Each structure stands twice: as structure tokens, then as C-alpha cells.
Amino acid sequence: MSDPVWKSEIIPADQALPGRQMAIPTAPSHFITGRDIRTEVPDVMMEIFVGMGCFWGAERLFWETTGIWHTAVGYGGGSTPNPTYEETCTGATGHAELVRVVFDPVEILPEDVLKVFWEGHDPTQGMRQGNDRGTQYRSALYTTSEAQLELARQSAERYQAELSRAGLGHITTEIAAAGPFYYAEDYHQQYLAKNPSGYCGIGGTGVICPIGLGVDA
């Protein structure tokens, strides 16, 4: 049996599930740091939202990176307000699984955050990541400033040059200004810290991204 169409195409807003007005319950605090899971971004820090397939492994990749101050997982880029995990997995919300990344630009440059993103997954696979198939697993970068958006686009161009040299395909990453972010359920937050041997489908192409290395693509 073939996958439903909304596993391979983002559902139009007028056909998406209605969702709900109230946010679904999530964790009160970060399992590792103890910070409020919904913490505000400190004035000296920056925020970006990344989609790299299953958000369990993607979140761990970032919380293990020096300079990352806060992470949380959730849903964004679609139409349904306050979706559940089960709804998102049907493809009928249009959302991607995302990691909210708050970072200190003194400790890690925005370019190096993007480097972690590009090298941490395969951005050429369209509506899937490895064996995980569906629009919720698409590669996505949702930015929070015009400067960040432009940097994301430039980084994609530079990484595409490296992928092409390696004989790989075209980047399919959705790059756009961030919209609403809906926090995922409690058990998804920092899942691999709570379940160290749990599933992690994340894996890169092996191609080095030149962003942050001080060299031309």
C-alpha cells in the first residue's frame, strides 16, 4: 500500500487538521539543565529552529554542542495549531519535527550552529530522513532574524557546492522565517537523555560544510 499523499507533500492549510486552542501539556523543565522548557531567549543570545528528521537525535546533537544554552523539541512549519505527535505523524498538520536551539554567539558563532545542522543529517532527501518517511521528517531551517535568514541561505549555497563535488543531490531544505513553534509532549523532551539506548535515526552525508572554517566553498 502506498503512503498517503500528505506523507510526500505538505498539506494545504485549508485541508489541515483543526487542532486546538490550548497548548498540549509538555515538560515543565529541561531534563538536563533544569531550565524552564519554555524559557525566554536572554538578550545576549540567539534562537533558531531546525528540522533534521526525528527530533530525538537532533536535539541530543545540539545539547552536546558547546555554546548551546537551551534546547527543546516541538512542531512547526505547518498549519494546525497545537498539534499532537500522533497528528503530526499523519502528515495532516503540515508540521516538521523541530528542535528549538538557543545559543550564545560568544561561545558558538551562528555559522557554526549551521555547520552542526548541515553536517548532522542529509538535507537532500526531501520528505524523509533515512528510513523515516513523511513530511514531518523534512529538512528545515526556520530563522528568527533577517540576518540569520540570509546567512542560512548563503550556507545552503556553499554546502550545495560541496555536495555537488561529492556527487550527491540537491538540497531540499526548507529555509524560511520562523512561525509558531508548538512544544512536543513531555516524553519527547530530551528523550535520549531519559532513554540513552533509544532510537536515533540521525546521520549525515559525510561531506564537510565549509561554513565556519574560514575557507571559500
What does the model show?
The structure is a single chain. The chain is α+β, with helices and mostly antiparallel strands. The protein has helices at residues 55-63, 85-89, 110-119, 146-165, 191-194; strands at 46-52, 68-76, 96-103, 128-129, 132-133, 139-143, 174-177, 181-183. The strands form 2 sheets. It has a 6-stranded mixed β-sheet, with helices on one face. A two-stranded antiparallel ribbon has the order 4-5. Helix 4 links the parallel strand 6 (139-143) and strand 7 (174-177). Helix 3 crosses helix 4. The mean pLDDT is 95.
Seen as an oligomer or otherwise, the chain set is single chain
* Total of DSSP H or I helical runs spanning 4+ residues: 5
User: Beta-strand percentage?
Assistant: 15-25%
Q: Outline, from the CA principal axes?
A: globular
Percent helix:
10-25%
In spatial order, strands of the major sheet run 7-6-1-3-2-8
Q: Give the N-to-C terminal Cα separation.
A: 43 Å
Rg on CA atoms, Å: 16 Å
Low-confidence stretches: none
Largest sheet: 6 strands, mixed
What attributes does this structure have?
single chain, 217 residues, alpha+beta, 8 strands, 18% strand, globular
Topology of helices and strands:
Layout: E1 46-52, H1 55-63, E2 68-76, H2 85-89, E3 96-103, H3 110-119, E4 128-129, E5 132-133, E6 139-143, H4 146-165, E7 174-177, E8 181-183, H5 191-194
Parallel strand pairs: 6-7
Antiparallel strand pairs: 1-3, 1-6, 2-3, 2-8, 4-5
How do you describe this structure in short?
The chain has 217 residues and is of the alpha+beta class. The chain contains five helices and eight strands; from the N terminus they run βαβαβαβββαββα.
